[in-house]
Write a structure and sequence with these properties.
Layout: H1 2-15, H2 21-45, H3 51-63, H4 67-92, H5 99-113
Helix pairs in contact: 2-3, 2-4, 3-4, 3-5, 4-5
């Protein structure tokens, strides 16, 4: 727990060294909320093939908040993919299981964070609600 707190603090220091703390932290919180909303929508939709769309959409929405939102999206996306790789390692061993999917997820994450249209990954038939 202490190590993770130190790591997050170091990321904050590096991420906001040349910016005001207030706006950056507000954007980061709003970006984290955007990421959570995309995750919740993905779980609710439970739509086959929509994973990459929700990855791109969460990152897109968060990055539009500003540098803090983009930072939060990157940290959350990287943490999610890295934790998934660790759990896959324990579950499947060093078989490479999930590596391709993780790379595709990161590609969708970067696509959204760069401001490109997340609908590029939208599967046909996904309800308009999302």
């Amino acid at each position: 727990m202490k190590l993770s707190t130190v790591i997050i603090f170091c990321f904050l220091i590096l991420g906001v060294s040349s910016q005001n703390w207030g706006p950056f932290l507000r954007e980061a919180a709003q970006g984290a909320k955007d990421m959570w909303r995309a995750y919740s929508d993905m779980r609710e939709a439970n739509y086959k093939g929509a994973d990459k769309y929700f990855h791109a959409r969460g990152n897109y929405d968060a990055a539009r908040r500003g540098p803090g939102g983009a930072w939060a999206a990157k940290v959350i996306s990287d943490a999610r993919e890295n934790s998934q790789r660790v759990t896959d390692l324990f579950k499947y061993g060093n078989s490479g299981h999930g590596v391709g999917d993780s790379r595709a997820d990161q590609k969708a994450n970067e696509h959204g964070r760069s401001g490109r249209d997340p609908n590029h990954f939208r599967p046909a038939g996904l309800p308009n609600k999302y």
